[in-house]
Every structure is written in structure tokens, then in C-alpha cells.
Amino acid sequence: MKIALGSDHGGYKLKEIIKKYLQHKQLEFVDFGTDSLQSVDYPDFAFPVAEAVAKGEFEKGILFCGSGVGVTITANKVPGIRAVNAYDTYTAKQSRQHGDCNVLCLGGRRLSKAKATKIVATWLRTDFSGDERHLRRLKKIER
Ligand code: RB5
User: Fold this and answer.
1) Contact 111, 83 (CB under 8 A)
2) Distance, CA 128 to ligand 1 centroid (Å)?
3) Which of 18, 107, 123, 128 has a Cα-to-Cα distance from 68 of 20 to 30 A?
4) Cβ contact 67:46 at 8 Å
5) Could you list the pLDDT tens digit for every one of the 143 residues in the chain?
6) Domains defined for the chain, CATH in brackets
7) Considering only CA atoms, which residue is closest to atom 7 of ligand 1?
8) Any ligand 1 atom below 6 A from CB of 6
């Protein structure tokens, strides 16, 4: 699985933590930046990641900002992207099972390392259920 990563300054530290986790799990990723704590605008990083996922260059994306809100709003503007701002493993799991979410957004200023890692692990290992009712609902969004 190839994963695209991106953050602003508010999500930078958590992105670095999650990169270590992905390396440990031998999961392939590309980091679209940012690469420091210097203030930047989250759409400059969230759009490239979301577009790369929408084009099929990456199976999934993980975005980080201070709250997870800004990158979620941005990613969901890209057709084909279903982004979730997950604050717990329940939401992470349901976003995959029911929503087939292909971008996970995390709040670097709100989540501990342990909680964020659990959310990422849950989200990455959970498949879309494929149930007819969920497909029907997702098709309605697409249309
Ligand atoms: C940046 O200060 C902050 O607004 C951003 O990281 C994010 O939390 C926006 O939703």
C-alpha cells in the first residue's frame, strides 16, 4: 500500500511520529511536506495529497494540521476524495467500513502519540464493508 502524507506546521510533529510508525510497519509512503514548524497554509499541502490519491497514484492519504479540520475541508473539495477527521478509533473504523474514506485527517495539537498511532493502525487495517446500503449512499454523494 502506498500512502501520501502531508501537513501544515500544526501537524508537522505528529506527521513525523506517524512516519516512524509507518517505517516500523514497512509501509511505503511519500511525504508531500511541510518539513518544519514554520507557518504555512494547509491547502498548499492538503490539495496535492488529495489530488494524488484521487488520481490513483496513492491508495490512501493521511493529512495533519493543528485540529485536522482545515485539511479535512480541503481534501473533501477534491472529487473522489472521502476524508475523515478522526479523533477516536471508532470513527476511524466506521469511516472505512461505511464511508470507504481514502484520506485520514488528524489534529496534531489534539492527539497524543499513542492515540494517533492507534487511530492510524485501525484506519489502515479496516476494509470497506462493500454493503449495498453503503455503496448506494456513496454513489449518491458522487452524483
Ligand atoms: C494553523 O494555525 C491551524 O489553523 C491549522 O493547523 C488547522 O488547525 C486548521 O484547521
Assistant:
1) no
2) 29
3) 128
4) no
5) 999 999 999 999 999 999 999 999 999 999 999 999 999 999 999 999 999 999 999 999 999 999 999 999 999 999 999 999 999 999 999 999 999 999 999 999 999 999 999 999 999 999 999 999 999 999 999 99
6) 2-142 (3.40.1400.10)
7) 66
8) no
Q: Ligand 1, from 14, 63, 69: best to mutate by most atoms within 8 Å of Cβ?
A: 69
d(CA 113, CA 132): 36
124 CB contacts (<8 Å, ≥6 apart)?
Answer: 1, 3, 27, 60
Three cell numbers written together for 29: 509512503
What CA dihedral angle connects 99, 104, 110 and 111, to 10 degrees? 100
Using CA positions, which residue lies closest to atom 3 of ligand 1?
66
